[in-house]
Every structure is written in structure tokens, then in C-alpha cells.
Amino acid sequence: xxxxxxxxxxxxxxxxxxxxxxxxxxxxxxxxxxxxxxxxxxxxxxxxxxxxxxxxxxxxxxxxxxxxxxxxxxxxxxxxx
Length: 81
Prior knowledge:
elongated; 4 helices; 74% helix; 81 residues; mainly alpha; 0% strand; single chain
């Protein structure tokens, strides 16, 4: 089980991106949720990334996004296609 009290925020950010990309282990999700409740910085980051992903998904449905823009966005968010 992860201990977010001792985890570096970069690692938390990586887990946040993975949580938005794929399903995480239930225990990891619970630990992440607890961390997000206690850490306003990570909560803001999580909300920002989640909104960006939702906006991107809406744009993709509405129109074509150039491949170089897709690649840049995935790279910035540390996501895989």
C-alpha cells in the first residue's frame, strides 16, 4: 500500500495521470483519493488534468486534431495513446 504522506508530489502527479488514463488498483485509488482530499495542490492539478482530458475528448468528437497537437498533449500529460 502506498503512503502518500511520504510520497513526492511528482510521483503523485504521475499516479494522477495514470488514474485518468487507465484503471488503477483499488487500494492505489483509495490512497490517491485520500491524498487528494488532504493536498490542495495535488487536487488542483488533478482537476486541471481531468478537465483538460475531458475537453480534449470533446474536441476529438467534434473535429480532427492534428497529430502533432495530439502528440504534444499526450507528452505533456505523460499519457500513452
